[in-house]
Design brief:
The strands form five sheets. A five-stranded antiparallel sheet has the order 2-3-4-5-6. The chain has a four-stranded antiparallel sheet with strand order 8-11-12-13, with helices on both faces. The chain has a four-stranded parallel sheet with strand order 15-14-16-17, with helices on both faces. Helix 3 crosses helix 4 and helix 6 crosses helix 7. The protein folds into three domains: about 100 residues, DNA Primase, Chain A; about 140 residues, DNA primase, catalytic core, N-terminal domain (DNA primase DNAg catalytic core, N-terminal domain), CATH 3.90.980; about 90 residues, Dna Topoisomerase Vi A Subunit, Chain: A, domain 2 (3-Layer(aba) Sandwich). The chain is globular, with a radius of gyration of 22 Å. Helix content is about 40%, strand content about 20%. The protein has 14 helices and 17 strands. It is α+β, with helices and mostly antiparallel strands.
Length: about 350
C-alpha cells in the first residue's frame, strides 16, 4: 500500500521539526535557531542547527540537511514510506493508502518486514510470560524473584521463550511470517536436514528456547533484537544469548534501555552506564531512570556518541571486580577522548 498525498501533507504539517529531532538529541536555543552536537557524525562542539521557522535542519560539519521526514529517514535508516508511517504514529494521524501493484508489493522494504516480525516475537514472548502455563511457572517467578513489578516488566516488555525446539517458529509460520524473514531477523536458525535426500531441505528451530527474554529497542522504541537468559543450571549452554547482527541490529551502535532512559537522561543531564540488562531494570524501578547498558559488547565509540546526543555527562557504574575495574578504566579513556565528562564509581 502507498500513502496518499493528502495524508503526506498532513504528516508534513504536523511533524514539528524541533519536536521530532528533540526525541533524539538535546537541543539548546541560541538566537532564532536550536543547536546540538550532530547525531550523524562525532563532534565536540555543536554544529547541528535546527530552524523551527523554516522547518529544516543542517549540520555545518558533515553537511546533512533536510526536513522532519528526511531526518527520520537518516537517523532510523528508514525508507521514505517507513519514515512517514513513523511520524504518522507519533502524531496520531490515520494513514490513508492506495493499492500497490504486485511488483511494488514484492519490492516492500525488507527492513520493515524485519521490524514487524521482531515486534510479533516480542508480543509472543510477552504472552508466554503472562498467559502460558510454562511461562507462568518458570519465567514469571524469575522476574518476581528479582523484585520486578508487573509495571516494570511491561515497561521493558520482558517475556519468556518456551522450551520446545520450534514452538515460536511454528506459531510465526502459522501466522503468515516467512521462514526467510524469521531467519534474517535472527529469531529462527536454519540447518540442512541430513535425514532427507532433498538437498534443499532445511531444519528450522528457535534461537531462543527456555529463556526469559529482554527485547532490545532502538531510540524510537522499535524492537530490533533480543537478549535471553537461561534459567536452568546447564554448563553446556551460554547463560546469556543475544540476537546476531542483522539488517536492523548492529550491537556496537545500540545501548540497552536507551528508549526508556532518553527523556530522563536529557532532563537529569547525566547518564548512568551499567553492565547488564537487570542492572538497568533494577535502577529504573528504583527511580533512577537515566540508565543504560552496553550489554553484549564492550563499550564502543558509537555507543558513547549515542549518549552524547542527550547529555555530555556519563557516570560509569560497572562491577567492582577485576574485569569491571578494567572495563571502567577503558571506558573512561574512550569517553574522555570523545570530549564528554565522566565519573567512575
Amino acid at each position: 500500500m502507498r500513502i496518499d498525498q493528502p495524508t503526506i501533507e498532513r504528516i508534513r504539517q504536523s511533524a514539528d521539526i524541533a519536536d521530532v529531532i528533540g526525541d533524539y538529541v538535546s537541543l539548546k536555543k541560541k538566537g532564532a535557531n536550536l543547536w546540538a552536537c550532530c547525531p550523524f557524525h562525532g563532534e565536540k562542539s555543536p554544529s547541528f542547527s535546527v530552524s523551527p521557522a523554516k522547518g529544516i535542519y543542517k549540520c555545518f560539519g558533515c553537511g546533512k540537511a533536510g526536513d522532519s521526514i528526511r531526518f527520520i529517514m537518516d537517523i532510523e535508516g528508514l525508507g521514505y514510506g517507513e519514515a512517514l508511517r513513523h511520524l504518522a504514529k507519533k502524531y496520531g494521524i490515520e494513514i490513508q493508502e492506495t493499492v500497490l501493484t504486485d511488483e511494488q508489493l514484492q519490492a516492500q522494504n525488507e527492513r520493515e518486514s524485519l521490524l514487524i516480525v521482531l515486534n510479533y516475537a516480542k508480543n509472543y514472548y510477552q504472552n508466554n510470560l503472562f498467559k502460558h502455563e510454562e511461562g507462568q511457572s518458570i519465567g514469571y517467578p524469575y522476574f518476581k524473584e528479582r523484585g520486578f513489578s508487573d509495571k516494570t516488566i511491561n515497561t521493558f516488555e520482558l517475556g519468556y521463550s518456551l522450551e520446545g525446539w520450534d514452538a515460536f517458529t511454528k506459531e510465526a509460520l502459522k501466522n503468515g511470517y516467512s521462514l526467510d524473514i524469521l531467519a534474517k531477523a535472527g529469531l529462527t536458525i536454519l540447518k540442512e536436514n541430513e535425514q532427507t535426500a532433498n538437498p534443499n531441505a532445511q531444519k528450522a528451530f528457535d534461537r531462543f528456547r527456555n529463556r526469559v527474554t529482554f527485547p532490545i529497542h532502538n531510540v524510537s522504541g522499535k524492537v530490533i533484537a533480543f537478549g535471553a537468559r537461561i534459567l536452568k543450571a546447564d554448563k553446556s549452554q551460554a547463560k546469556y544469548l543475544n540476537s546476531p547482527e542483522t539488517e536492523v541490529y548492529h550491537k556496537s551502535n545500540v545501548l540497552y534501555g536507551i528508549f526508556q532512559a532518553k527523556n530522563a537522561i536529557r532532563t537529569k543531564d547525566v547518564c548512568y552506564l551499567v553492565e547488564g540488562y537487570t542492572d538497568v531494570i533494577s535502577l529504573h524501578q528504583a527511580g533512577i531512570e537515566n540508565v543504560v547498558a552496553s550489554s553484549g559488547t564492550s563499550l564502543t565509540v558509537e555507543q558513547i556518541r549515542l549518549i552524547g546526543r542527550f547529555t555530555q555527562n556519563i557516570t560509569v557504574l560497572y562491577d567492582g571486580d577485576t574485569a569491571g575495574i578494567k572495563a571502567s578504566l577503558r571506558g573512561m579513556d574512550m569517553i574522555l577522548e570523545e570530549g564528554l565528562n565522566v565519573k567512575l564509581f
